[in-house]
Design brief:
Elements (H helix, E strand, L loop, with lengths): L1 E4 L3 H5 L10 H17 L12 H4 L2 E7 L2 E6 L9 H14 L4 E6 L12 H9 L2 E2 L26 H7 L5 H7 L24 E5 L7 E6 L5 E5 L3
Parallel strand pairs: 3-4, 5-8
Antiparallel strand pairs: 1-2, 2-3, 6-7, 7-8
Length: about 230
């Protein structure tokens, strides 16, 4: 069974010289894997339909041998509700292309990162009015500490928040950077509006239509827009 992975795309597209007679059988298997990858790569994400699974980076590996295909995908986060739909759509697409025996496997390591979104995928997001993610945060190996905080609303002064018990966590401020005058974490600034290009934007809600996106508003054009959060 031949394997076609993300790292193998460039090699396949490079146009290597033709095989000799002793390599034709192996080349046919590789061509079959490349064809299966091309079919799987047309399947779109159910939550971001402007992106294919290849654009999104969740399509990790395609192995093909005759009529049997094994596809490996990585969820954008554990428990992603779109995984079942991705599996079904991959199976249906490959069945329509003539592959009757299709298995879709879930691969959790390495974990998906927004850095895996292709340049073409980022362009498609922006064209659809969704701000693409910036560079994903880096984490040391091992357990990742989690700090739970209560966030002070922007229109509540710190003194009033203290009196009402709505506490701004100083540990969070020290570990994630200073807060701006409106109470927004300074690390959240700099997301450009996909409509007018202004960097003067603010986060309205940490969650939008899906858990992987935040809702933001542009202070320049006043338009709301979604932002794919960095993971």
């Amino acid at each position: 069974m031949s394997t076609f992975t993300t790292s193998g795309i460039r090699a396949w597209q490079g146009g290597a010289s033709g095989p000799d007679s002793s390599e034709r059988s192996g080349q046919a298997v590789k061509d079959d894997a490349a064809r299966a990858w091309a079919v799987a790569g047309t399947v779109t994400d159910p939550e971001l339909p402007m992106l294919t699974l290849a654009d999104l980076g969740v399509l990790r590996d395609v192995r093909a041998d005759g009529g049997r295909v094994v596809v490996s995908i990585t969820p954008t986060y554990t428990g992603c509700p779109a995984m079942d739909t991705m599996r079904d759509d991959l199976v249906h697409a490959l069945n329509r292309a003539g592959y009757d025996d299709v298995e879709v496997r879930t691969v959790l390591s390495p974990p998906w990162s927004t850095d895996w979104i292709s340049d073409d995928g980022r362009r498609k997001l922006a064209e659809a009015g969704i701000a693409p993610p910036g560079a994903a945060p880096t984490h040391p190996s091992g357990p990742i500490p989690l700090t739970l905080t209560t966030r002070r609303p922007a229109d509540v002064p710190a003194s009033a928040a203290s009196r009402t018990g709505d506490v701004v966590d100083e540990a969070r401020a020290s570990s994630h950077g200073a807060f701006s005058a409106d109470g927004q974490d300074a690390s959240e600034t700099g997301v450009a509006c996909p409509r007018c290009g202004s960097a003067q934007t603010e986060e309205v809600s940490r969650f939008s239509a899906t858990a992987c996106k935040a809702l933001r508003r542009c202070r320049a054009c006043q338009e709301p827009f979604e932002h794919v959060k960095e993971i």
